[in-house]
Design a protein that fits this description.
Blueprint (H helix, E strand, L loop, with lengths): L3 H10 L2 E7 L4 E5 L7 E2 L13 E7 L2 E6 L4 E6 L7 E2 L4 E8 L2 H12 L1 E4 L4 E5 L1 H10 L5 E2 L4 E7 L2 E6 L5 E6 L6 E2 L4 E6 L4 H14 L5
Antiparallel strand pairs: 1-8, 2-4, 2-7, 3-6, 4-5, 6-8, 9-16, 10-12, 10-15, 11-14, 12-13, 14-16
Helix pairs in contact: 2-4
Protein name: Biotin-requiring enzyme
Length: about 220
């Protein structure tokens, strides 16, 4: 069984994730007026319609495209030696240190504490009608799953096929996809919680919600 306290202490000791900003395509680099230690912001607005902090621009064949910050955080590395240079796709240009939010910490804990049932292929996933109805009426933790239970309709290339759950018995605690979205192979679809661990997991989630201090 996962030691939740140890995991939480580990996250508290290093409550960050490091994001390497790389060139999405070839081009000539032009950095924005940033320096190490500066704070940057991710996209905001109801639909993320307001772009994040401008980090740099890449120019290719007289076509200049801006690159905005994917997360809020602090600039910890800037490769100024690449200013004005032509770079290949995938070249690291800068690094941002992002302080984990309360919801990100909870998600990190849940992804380690729960059994993750993952997408076997890139496709759109839909719950079978019986499960879908129960989730809508009674909520996630009302649905108990067991190995072999028919759970999804998989839609790919205009073909629909059934997909059964494979894994330990438990309750649906988390749903990681949205109806109609394409899910990549290997990405989690469900987080399943054994019934005897439900109280423990709910307690640690409540603890994080009460104790974790948001930054910025």
């Amino acid at each position: 069984m996962l030691n939740i306290k140890e995991l939480l202490d580990e996250i508290k000791a290093s409550p960050y994730k490091t994001i390497d900003v790389v060139a999405p395509h070839t081009g000539t680099v032009g950095f924005a007026e940033l320096k190490v230690g500066d704070k940057v912001r991710s996209a905001s607005g109801t639909w993320d319609e307001k772009p994040g902090t401008l980090l740099l621009q890449l120019t290719r064949e007289h076509n200049t495209k801006p690159l905005h910050s994917p997360e809020s955080g602090e600039v910890t590395e800037l490769r100024h030696e690449l200013e004005g240079k032509f770079v290949e796709a995938g070249t690291k240009l800068m690094t941002i240190r992002h302080y984990l939010s309360r919801s990100e910490v909870i998600d990190l804990i849940l992804q380690k504490a729960l059994f993750l049932f993952k997408a076997p292929e890139r496709a759109k996933y839909y719950f079978v009608p019986e499960v879908d109805q129960k989730l809508k009426v009674s909520g996630k933790r009302s649905v108990k799953v067991s190995d072999g239970m028919e759970m999804f309709i998989v839609s790919r290339m205009k073909r629909e096929t059934p997909l059964s759950y494979s894994g330990p018995e438990g309750l649906i605690y988390a749903v990681y996809f949205h109806r109609g979205d394409n899910v990549d192979a290997g990405e989690p679809l469900l987080g399943i919680c054994p019934e005897d661990q439900l109280t423990m997991i709910e307690d640690v989630v409540a603890r994080v919600q009460g104790e974790w201090e948001e930054q910025g």
